[in-house]
Amino acid sequence: MALQTLLEPNHVSSTSELGTPPISGLFGPIEISPSVFPRYPYPGENLAPMYPTFPTTYEPKLTGKCPVNFTAMSNVIDRTASDCSQPLAALVGNVICCPQLGSLLHIFQGYFSGNSDKLVLQNAVADDCFSDIISILASRGANITIPTLCSVKSLNLTGGLCPVKDVVNFEKIVNTSKLLEACSTVDPLKECCRPICQSAIIEAALEISGTQLTINDNRDLVTVPNHNDPLSDCKGVVFSYISRKLSADAANSAFRILSACKVNKGTVVMIFLLYELFLSFCWTEFYKCNANVTSIISCAYIASSVRFSCVLELFMME
Question: Looking at the whole model, is its pTM more than 0.70?
Answer without folding.
Answer: no
